[in-house]
Amino acid sequence: MPVQFPLKLIDRRMLAPTVGHYQFLRDDGQPLDFQPGQFIQVHFEYADGTATKRSYSLATIHDHAMAPGEAVDIAVSFVPGGAATALFEGLDLGGHVTASGPFGRFCLMPGDHNARYLLIATGTGVTPYRSMLPLLATAMAGRGVEVVLLQGARTPEELLYSEDFYAFAAAHPGFRYVPCLSRELPESPHPDVRHGYVQQHLAEFAPNPATDIAYLCGNPDMVDATFEALKEAGLPTPQVRREKYVSSK
What we know:
Blueprint: E1 4-16, E2 19-26, E3 39-45, E4 51-57, E5 71-77, H1 83-89, E6 96-103, E7 116-122, H2 127-143, E8 146-153, H3 162-171, E9 175-181, E10 194-195, H4 198-201, E11 212-218, H5 220-232, E12 240-244
Parallel strand pairs: 7-8, 7-11, 8-9, 9-10, 11-12
Antiparallel strand pairs: 1-2, 1-6, 2-5, 3-4, 3-6
């Protein structure tokens, strides 16, 4: 059984109408050292006492070259009637949850020699890319890699962490941020905003097996459709790294 540890809530805010950003500190005197792209599991009980858990990708921005971090950032989708939703909505500042991890291999690999990363996400699937920003900055500076992030949402209000990605794009010319909005565009959209789903706009960026590694994270239908499009473009399976998010109550 994985080691469990307490997390203390130190901050929270709404990212979107149904998604909250929660920042915790590990509260047992130990750091939570992780690789960007990994996730933690939060353990709790249903009303009848049955044990359950939910997985949350770490959204924490931290320079891991310096030292293990203390903050633990996650994005929580609120599901009507959901047990995890009740847990987080009822959590006050200073309150605790029990967690384990980190887990997962949806990470940037030290041995990558690609010229470009294609990062594609919907919903809370964008959270691991937020944590990857410091490593992407290092890769862009060190080996000249380019990065394109296609983020899918229905409306501008549902673009999670868009302020972070816009700021990063402004500071790093090799990073291109492309929000894809399926229902509603802003009144004065940025030139890189697209109308439609992320998989509809993938061809615009000409996926190339000779140069690209792609990451897909979020809605399973999007992940499957985009994976097929990338295969048709010639990318072999090892160059497409996937993680599906399935909502549960």
